[in-house]
Amino acid sequence: MEYRIEVENLNVYFDELHILKDISLQIPKNAVTSLIGPSGCGKSTFIRTLNRMNDMISTFKMDGTVLLDGEDIYNPKVDVVELRKKVGMVFQKPNPFPKSIFDNVAYGLRVHGISDKDYLAQKVEESLKAAALWDEVKNILDKSAMGLSGGQQQRLCIARTIAVEPEVILMDEPCSALDPISTTKIEDLIHKLKNDFTIIIVTHNMQQATRVSKYTAFFLHGEIVESGLTEKIFIEPEDKRTEDYITGRFG
Amino acid sequence: MSKWNEEYFIEKGLLLTAISSIIIIALIIIFIFKEGIPALQSVGFFSFLFGMEWAPSNGKFGIFPMIIGSLGITGLSLLMAVPLGVFCAIFLAEIAPSPIRKILEPTIQTLAGIPSVVYGFFGLVLLVPFMREQFGGTGFSMFAASIILTVMILPIIVSVSEDALKSIPLEYKEASLALGATHWQTIKNVIFPAAIPGIITSVILGMGRAIGETLAIIMVAGNVVQIPGSILDPVRALTSNIAIEMGYATGVHYNALFATGIVLVFMIIILLIIANYLHYKKKVTIGGGYL
Fold first, then answer.
1. Among A53, A98, A160, whose Cβ lies nearest the Cβ of B194?
2. ipTM of the complex
3. What is the sign of the dihedral through the CA atoms of B248, B253, B259 and B264?
4. Distance from CA of B191 to the nearest CA of A (A)
5. Is B196 within the bounds of a domain?
6. DSSP letter (8 states) at residue B190
7. Mean pLDDT in chain B?
């Protein structure tokens, strides 16, 4: 099997707090991997390590290796801007910019120096179509993105991420602020996107993990208890703690 | 006292304090009008406002050069203070490491607390002689007054703009960085545009202080009643006019100084309306109720 991301013996600290303990995990290419576990177990910290968003936090320290396509992303020679082009991220709370819908999707392309109007228009349309939002917004592209519903905003954020053509999309509980109908739309979208992108999704919703992902990793207190095929983890988990969690006995 | 009574008295008490501040402002304005209107009647509204000559002993009361003086000094100081202040605020809010910020922030706030006479004194002793050597003339000039005002309004612009920049949700910044934007691109394209309403507020506050400042300007502007040919010419501001002549004015002259005050009040009101309109318009175009 081909892996897009390989994490070996990763430890993450914020000041003295040991958040992630000796994490090793391989993320298969062009498939969906779910990260599940109770709040505060380090799932979000883990995915924020994969696009170096934790660099913003001054107390962040780490050791171990994180390889993207075989290359260490924490190598000092790595350009963080280039890395984040390859590893896009969708956040928990929909966070479109206070700009027009068009400008939101075009943002990533523009900061990477693309200014050709026809090309931008074409990419914006493609990305919005890929995010299943085009039909709802094609006539209001110049309106503020803040006027969209929460579910539409989140799909806009996904369109914005797709537009820069990343290899990996990190999703940090993308549906936790959305209603069930919007959630279904996002899940359908994830199914469509997995052919072209490697997707890692953090979720608190067990059913969501079984619905969208092929692989699952179970985090507890900063460690990975168990990882592997989603089916196997949910039907015959090896570890007692995994079983307790997925059957709802704690967390 | 029952709980209900307590609520009642506190609410009414707060209402009373709010009303009394409005009444005080209203009384002041009424008084200024009462004293100023006679001058407008005897001189004539237009010849007062657009008259080019101010010679109280000859009965000439034209304040147009001083309107230009006030607007010129204020405009020139905003021209210098706004870019300087906004960039300084961006530096403090986004770039400065915490130790530097901890030194700079209180320093800038201290600048706001220095009395204006001290700024004027500084200008008189250092800035005016310097300009005399560099540019010739007396050194007392619109430019000197603008520089002093720039230093005086800088703290307001910096601290209010900084607050505006810091109040932009972290989510915007993260979203931009996650798309592969650099820190500067994020500041330029996301954080700064979202903070514009707050930055406009800082400019309004700075402008209010600049146009109302009196003492520091008297000390460095030269106070000659003329429309300046260049920024190195001396000018007189409306505020200075009142302060300089109030001590000995009688009769129409006395009333004319109050009329100057009326003009000043209206100028400030008009500028505030324009600024608030810009502020409001910007808010609406950003849209969505978030900002």
1. A98
2. 0.89
3. negative
4. 9
5. yes
6. I
7. 90
